[in-house]
């Protein structure tokens, strides 16, 4: 890795390839320090776990209530959960993602997981506070302002209740999911979160398999979302945890699988070292199915721009991005963002690239 040679077109001439050694890419001390910082986290090995079938709201386009996983019998035996975590640790899993339906409804199961594997994150709607003893990173989902949330999620005053629960909580980061209908609301929501001292990162609505609702993105909404993300990064640098390359990767006309090739077992037949071998997505009965295993099961893979998927799919493509200094810096920004979003107390740095860099092998949009 440290001396990988790759080729790129020389400036002004596509016929004269310029080669960079990896040492060239990290020659700048700031870049080298960032590389050394992120590589210390390459030990992370994730799997995900549905904690319960229950939820206290119903969202338009919810991933959980699609496919077979929603019908799995719910296991409430804490000792069996503990043994699962111990077995996961034994096979090398170092990072857990607890999801659901809604994990905050079963805090005792979350506590068992934290006791056995203390690195991880919980995806929650934030309406019920998760006890402070559970020290995972908390991802609190936001789908627009309160009026939109009521329309698409059926819950009133979500932002008020979410910020009341997690204001000044170092575990919490709000995840604003862009749909075609809430792009113009992102500034208002970000301003409110900034005033409350909260952090926010961005997600993209990615249609579940067979989805026929009105939240699927269009070329126009992708373009508008990218610009909104870039504007918010500039206006709220202390609040928004994101990079310019994140915006490019997640608002491209092509989904993540087409751009980078998905690493999760559902689309990756390889069982060599990597996610294809180590990743499992456990259902509430503690079973799992390799054919369906990915970070957000039952997503339409061709439409997948999900932030959770990108955290593994883009991050895994180091070699494709080790082509020139700016592409490599953009990749480092992406990994730095991913670690800040997912790992509690990770010391995120300033973005290294101020340019919009194309995904390797593709146009910018």
UniProtKB/TrEMBL annotation:
GO terms for molecular function: catalytic activity; iron-sulfur cluster binding; metal ion binding. Keywords: Iron, Iron-sulfur, Metal-binding, S-adenosyl-L-methionine. Its cofactor is [4Fe-4S] cluster. InterPro entries: Aldolase_TIM, rSAM, rSAM_sf. Transmembrane segments: none annotated. It comes from the Bacteria. The keyword Transport does not apply. This is Radical SAM protein. It comes from Desulfosarcina ovata subsp. ovata.
